[in-house]
Amino acid sequence: MKVLIAEDSDSDRLILSALVRRLGHRVFEARDGIEAVALFVEIQPDIVLLDALMPRMDGMEAARQIKVLAGEQMVPLIFLSSLSDATELARCLEAGGDDFLVKPYNRVILEAKINAFNRMRLMHRVLSDQRDQIRRQNEALVEEQRIARRVFDNVAHTGCLNADNICYHASPMSVFNGDVLFAADRPGGGTLIFMGDFTGHGLPAAIGAMPVAEIFYGMATKGFSAADILREINRKLCKILPTGMFCCGAMLDADFKLGQLRTWNGGLPDGWLVRADGERIAIPSGHLPLGVQSPEQFSASMTVWSVVPGDQVIVMTDGFPESSNKQGQQFGEARVGQVLDQLQPGETPFHALMAKVQEFTGKPEATDDLTVCALRIIPYRQHQAQNDRPPESALLGPVDWHCVYEVREQTLADFSPLPLLLHICMEVPGLRRKSGEVYTLLSELYNNALEHGVLQLPSELKASPEGFGHYYQERKRRLSETNGHYIRFSLSHQPTAIGGQLKVVCEDSGQGYDFEHYFEKLSDVNQASGPRYAGRGLDMVRRMARHLRVHGRGNHVELVYDWEAAEGIDGVQPDCNETQRIADD
Amino acid sequence: MPIEARRSDDGQTLTIRVQGRFDFSTHQAFRDAYEHSDSSVTRYIIDLSDTTYLDSSALGMLLLLRDHAGGDSARVSVENCNSDVRRILAISNFEQLFSIR
Predict the structure, then answer these.
(1) Residue A186 to residues A191, A446, A511: CA-CA distances in angstroms?
(2) Could you report the per-residue pLDDT of A30-83, keeping only the tens digit for each?
(3) Measured between beta carbons, which residues in chain A are less than 8 angstroms from residue B91?
(4) Domains of chain B: residue spans and CATH
(5) Which of A17, A53, A176, A380 has the fewest CB atoms below 10 angstroms from its CB?
(6) Nearest residue to A308 (alpha-carbon basis) of A349, A374, A260, A341
């Protein structure tokens, strides 16, 4: 160690230097305070022994200057003094001294003190190194979070959260609290909102949020149903999250045209439907959180509410009821209910709740840990008008294609080609929101070809409830005899100015059936004689499609289906009753 | 389970909920859901909240239920259809036979 000794008495300095040298340290000598300070700067000693009384600059002043120069570094300062007055000794310590040695020097005590201060100096160095390391790591972490958030924001952009009928509160760093909030306009009109609250904080929660954002926005714009999106989120989280980590969440799916709101709550506090007339209805959690149950057990079953413009629905993460005031009391779910019951005319549930929680906690920053979102139901026209976006056909994807798919032999019994064919059609951008209709079209043609064509089942069987059952038993039995048979689908799709045109040709190897008679009978279906249980399939197809042609013996059916990417603002569906019904050959 | 039946507390209303595709494959389960209920049931609710697709055989099954429940005097409502399902019911003029909500 380098030891600086400042002592004006030559003899005392000589004795002390000799003692310290003998202990194995390097000694640097100064004769007064000024020399001591200069030498301190020059040699950066590890420990300083300083006489209190010196000419030019005394020890007290030198101690003060040395402490300033040392800054954050710990340089033990030991006063040498022949003083025995307690007040004087105390002054030495106040000036910055760490201890004192009383003359005459005792070698054993000197050695012990130097060693003790050396230990303290080393400990101090370890601590300050660690502190610096923590500081650097924290700076790096903050920087990483900043970048991570930028990446997250790119994936989980605000969607349509800024729409006029949506109010929300989410702290900018909420993703690191585990909260996520996404909103998307549905193709075909409507709004989808997902709020999630991951267990845990920080990076693990943020990492889980990324795929959820991707799934939500990816599937929502393609027109998947809210239930499909929930199932996919659950499947993904189940796969990637460790046991014990999951995501509480709520999904709101508003269809402004139908006046329908579908809700799903898995583990979040009660959401609320606040009617335009003031009535409030709880939307309690009815499901396990996402990422807990296997896909087979998971229930995406949604609750359906009929809503009118002016109704509002509000959901929140548990940070809201758990906001606490200075006394440690929580806001609580009961208070949420009270606030909603005492809404003033013109006051929205969202603003009332936010005002009350801030008043309750008394500090605005307390809202950093909570996420709240409210959606107001608006008239369909207004929603259409505020969504001035490009038509769906501007999206990328296959729009012009043709494919043929033939199912034959035993496969006819074992496999339904419908999901696969539907999947191919749903790749057309914008067509997914018509998935129900496309499925029905394909399904009717297929079942017709299979049941009446290949299996030769007469639909007259379905005339009675017993016959209905018998029909399906017979269907099952005859499916074991499909040798030599096939059903062939030829699908093609072309874009049109307003959407697209899907052509479907379905041929089968059956002997055909009396389709002319079939169509004649159609007119009887809804007659006073009472509705029949069967014979509705092709009629339904005829009404949905632009053309339906039955060729040959009835085993070659062709349909043309026109669809529009965006519905007209009045929401009127094209009337299909004028479609042609041609039986040629 | 694709078909789930639930009786109201007073036993008079039977709610049948259909999940996913409502087509011939659910035929037996759908029939079991109402045929095994006792005669105190006076009202039927078909809840289609979770029904994604529906085909003509499902329409046939709805008519079977209607007849089971007393034909023209039956009280059967079809609830919570999505827009595609609603359109198919409309195309087939089912509003005339069922109360569709």
Answers:
(1) 5, 30, 44
(2) 999 999 999 999 999 999 999 888 888 888 889 999 999 988 888 999 988 876
(3) 540, 543-544
(4) 3-100 (3.30.750.24)
(5) A53
(6) A260
Which residue is closest to B19 within chain A, CA to CA? A301
Predicted complex ipTM: 0.71
Provide the token pair at A171. 């702290």
> What is the distance between the alpha carbons of residues A361 and A526, in angstroms, rounded to a whole number?
65
- Residue A556, strand partner residues: A507, A551
Inter-chain residue contact A304 with B85, CB threshold 8 Å: no
Angstrom CA distances, A155 to A133, A146, A178, A205, A397, stand at 32, 14, 16, 15, 20
* Residues of B whose CB is below 8 A from A436: 52-54, 82-85, 87-88
- What are the tokens at A225? 């149903």
Contact of B43 with B14, CB cutoff 8 Å = yes
Of A258, A444, A536, the CB nearest to B83: A258
Annotate A251-316 with DSSP letters as a single string: EEEEETTTTEEEEEEESSPPEEEE-TTS-EEEE---SPPBTTS-TTT-----EEEE--TT-EEEEE
Question: Against a cut of 0.90, is the pTM above it?
Answer: no
* Structural domains for chain A: 2-126 (3.40.50.2300), 157-386 (3.60.40.10), 392-583 (3.30.565.10)
- The DSSP bridge pattern shows strands A312-316 and A271-274 to be antiparallel
